[in-house]
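Supplementary notes for students who missed Thursday's class. We covered one full example, reproduced here. Read the sequence, then the structure, then the short commentary at the end.
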Amino acid sequence: MTEILKEVKKLTKITLVRHGQTDYNKNRIIQGQIDIPLNSLGKEQAVKTSNHFKNESIDLIISSPLIRAYETAQIIANEINYTNDILIDKAFIERNFGQADGKEISLCIEKVHQEEITGLELSSQLKKRMIDGILKVVKENENKNIVIVCHSHSIKAVLSALNPDQYNFKTPLTNCGITLLEHRDNQLTILKASYNDYI
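Structure (token representation):
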């Protein structure tokens, strides 16, 4: 029994939530670090997504500094009666797409995948930023249930870093898609990726 308790004590749960829809998402435009708010559907998606957490005790909500992520985090927090502060952490900001920001996805997505865009944050840099950010949060909040609201390529970076055989930057991820991770015995593991039972 003592060994089981020790094992449970080391478990930290991390849920990554992509923000709700924006008009840039709707119109298939790369927004990157352009600060675009949620549209009405995005707000509805965030409300529905909160149902995922209503039977859980959430210790900490963290958001990217971009407004679409923070609005999503606020809506979820309000819906589940979360009373602590929402922490803003720039480690979880969306990828810098350089000169591709503000352009139609169809016109430049292959160049993004080939990393042929001027000013683009490289996939290796993004993976390191995201994993380092998560591990820092875990170190400071061991044994807690944490929600991090961030972005499509930010989450894909985590997935592809942890399981490159199954995930990459072409992996579909819907608005308000959820990815569940756990940190146990110094190991970060994907439990479930890119799902949402409520939207």
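Commentary. The longest strand covers residues 187-195. The helical segments are 2-9, 23-26, 40-49, 67-79, 105-113, 123-140, 152-162. If anything here is unclear, bring it to office hours.
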